[in-house]
From TrEMBL:
Gene3D superfamilies: 3.30.300.30, N-terminal domain of ligase-like. It comes from the Eukaryota. This is Uncharacterized protein. CDD domains: ttLC_FACS_AEE21_like (cd12118). Residues 20-396 form the AMP-dependent synthetase/ligase domain.
């Protein structure tokens, strides 16, 4: 057969930006965004994004310049996920809970040309910009005034809405010349002092968006509640995904369990995402009127938390991803035969991360010292590695870090896991969170799962505490459920674990807190807890204390 060559007809670069125009055509009268008293349809959102992209393009920044956004889950935040790349620039969402210094570090490292900021975050935006060196080009500041908020609304001639109104609704948005051009820049979660800038291409975002919809079996026109911050990996790609399926984006500036339940019932929500802390947050509320699909990621949700959440009417799907892959790439694909298993066994299976999604080429657990696959025994721990088109281009201005994690054809995640006999992966810990006690590897995740099974425990996190004899021992930080009449004593918690764990895995220290410190995406700040445990100093343990 003659070797055929690609042509202009089939070389159109892949980009999720094309989803928006189709949504405006197909879902003409369907709501695209609901926020307080504001409702837009998909044609309206399409026109608003074109106007905004037109106005942004007039800044005449260099191609692929970085434009930053500092905002909660409001309509403008959603629109900017389309408008900035439609203007030919790279969108950089910034975690709204970061401190001034870290925000300034990001703005400087990204060389951001503009900063769109929610007016409620003015002091954070202005304070961060004030920390930039005088000779460093400061970003153009564009406030977003909340039209549904009397304190925020006002004259917007120089702000977001005023700029949008001056834009051209017939603007021909800037298509990428290559699908490998950068589209997003997201900094790692900020739980360390040196977050890295993760760059994704139009191609990788296109692939992960399609993959995320298919993997979660998202139907057309779902009602999606934004409990996951859009600044966290662009909302795991569901910002563009909702346009692909004509979904309704129910936006929340802030939320708690009461607000979430009210929004679910008022808008007939069908789908939502969130870290396991979101599951835990809603455990004390009544059963839902109709089932809600919830996708959770981050730390593995303990089986007791899954059982409680599903008893309320949530249908929990568990996935694994990271900023470097832009969404969920390993998920617990459910087997029909598991439906006949007891609820506790179903919860145990569902807490596993699972198998690669269709958009990922390969996932494995390997010995990091030689790159060889570990035995499929569910016991031998190794590092989780990934390969596929949804992987990042690399870390911005950090070739050393890029080369360190992307090598030998794999992305080395830094997550420690096991491979079960059925080919399903289960995370045991982050490499930095593994506790080595007397030469034994202690998985903090396994200890936390047992602690969550205690009826008095609301939140649990386990880190290493220095020990004179064993090197390290597990130290548990706990918060208790509301309404617990008598707080369990430290020795009672230790004994509870001793009955359910090998003795070397049992926490030797238990610390009670009102609430565990977390990042904006609901991840427990284990680095902060490690600092507390380290400041407590070495604990003198004897061999007898382990018996």
């Amino acid at each position: 057969m003659d070797r055929l060559k690609p042509s202009a007809a089939n070389l159109s670069p892949l980009t999720p930006l094309t989803f928006l125009e189709r949504a405006a055509t197909v879902y003409t009268h369907s709501p695209s965004i609901i926020y307080n008293t504001t409702t837009y349809t998909w044609p309206q959102t399409h026109r608003r994004c074109l106007r905004l992209a037109s106005a942004i393009s007039r800044f005449s920044f260099p191609p692929n310049a970085v434009l930053s956004v500092l905002a909660p889950n409001i309509p403008a935040m959603y629109e900017l996920q389309f408008a900035i790349p439609m203007a030919g620039y790279v969108i950089n969402n910034i975690n709204t809970r970061l401190d001034l210094t870290t925000v300034a570090l990001i703005l400087r490292h990204a060389e951001s040309r503009a900063l769109f900021f929610d007016s409620h975050l003015r002091s954070l935006a202005m304070g961060a910009v004030s920390l930039l060196p005088p000779d460093f080009p400061h970003p153009l500041l564009i406030p977003i005034h909340d039209q549904d908020d009397d304190e925020s609304a006002g004259s917007d001639d120089l702000g977001y809405e005023g700029m949008l109104e001056r834009g051209d609704p017939d603007f021909r948005w800037v298509e990428p010349k290559s699908e490998w051009e950068p589209m997003t820049l997201n900094y790692t979660s900020g739980t360390t002092s040196s977050p890295k800038g993760v760059v994704h291409s139009h191609r990788s975002i296109f692939v992960i968006t399609f993959d995320s919809l298919l993997n979660w079996s998202v139907p057309t026109q779902p009602v999606y509640l934004w409990t996951l911050p859009m600044f966290h990996s662009n909302g795991w790609s569901y910002t563009w995904g909702m346009a692909a399926v004509g979904g309704t984006n129910v936006c929340l500036r802030k939320f708690n369990a009461e607000i979430v339940y009210d929004a679910i019932n008022r808008h007939n929500v069908t789908h939502m995402c969130g870290a396991p802390v979101v599951l835990n947050m809603m455990a004390n509320y009544p059963r839902l009127k109709s089932p809600v699909q919830i996708l959770t990621g981050g730390a593995p949700p303990p089986a007791p938390v899954l059982l409680r959440t599903e008893s309320l009417g949530f249908v929990v799907s568990h996935g694994y991803g990271m900023t470097e892959v832009a969404g969920v790439v390993v998920s617990c694909a459910w087997k029909s035969k598991w439906n006949s298993f007891p609820a506790t066994e179903q919860a145990r299976l569902k807490s596993r991360q699972g198998v690669r999604t269709l958009g990922l080429a390969a996932a494995d657990v390997v010995d990091p010292s030689n790159g060889e696959s570990v035995p499929r025994d569910g016991l031998t721990m190794g590092e989780i590695v990934l390969r596929g088109s949804c992987l990042m281009l690399g870390y911005l201005k950090n070739p050393e870090a890029t080369a360190k994690c992307m090598r030998n054809g794999w992305l080395f995640t830094g997550d420690i896991g096991v491979m079960h006999r059925d080919g399903y992966i289960e995370i045991k810990d982050r490499s930095k969170d593994i506790i080595i006690s007397g030469g034994e590897n202690v998985s903090s995740v396994e200890v936390e799962s047992v602690l969550y099974s205690n009826p008095a425990v609301n939140e649990a996190a386990v880190v290493a505490r220095p020990d004179d004899y064993w090197g390290e021992t597990p130290c548990a930080f706990l918060s208790l459920k509301e309404g617990v009449e008598s707080r369990p004593a430290e020795n009672e918690v230790i004994e509870f674990c001793r009955e359910r764990l090998p003795h070397y895995m049992v926490p030797k220290t238990v610390i009670f807190m009102e609430e565990l410190p977390k990042t904006a995406t609901g991840k427990v700040k284990k680095f902060a807890l490690r600092g507390i445990a380290h400041q407590m100093g070495s604990q003198s343990q004897t061999p007898a204390s382990r018996m």
